[in-house]
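Listing S7. Sequence submitted for prediction.
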Amino acid sequence: MQTYVMIGKYSSEAVRDISSNRTDRSIHLIKELGGKVHSMYTLLGGYDVVVTVDFPDLKTAMKASLGLTILTGIGFSTYPAISVSDFDSMIAK
């Protein structure tokens, strides 16, 4: 599994449809695709939401990113991520 950070920005329609039910459906979609949610946060500033999640591969992450945008109206930018300790090990070699 690979960790991804998904950063989202609400559309005006997405703001009107905010609900815990939509959050539950989003988590269900991620799990349906073989993903695992680590955290979900709302933000202040240029972006509105950040999700850290594991997916089996890049294609699945891309499918989830698009699927969540269709489901929620939130536009996501999705980035692969590795832990700082893994990064430190990688550059030490």
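Caption to Listing S7: primary sequence and predicted structure tokens for the chain studied. The beta strands are 2-10, 36-42, 49-55, 74-81. The chain is about 45% helix and 35% strand.
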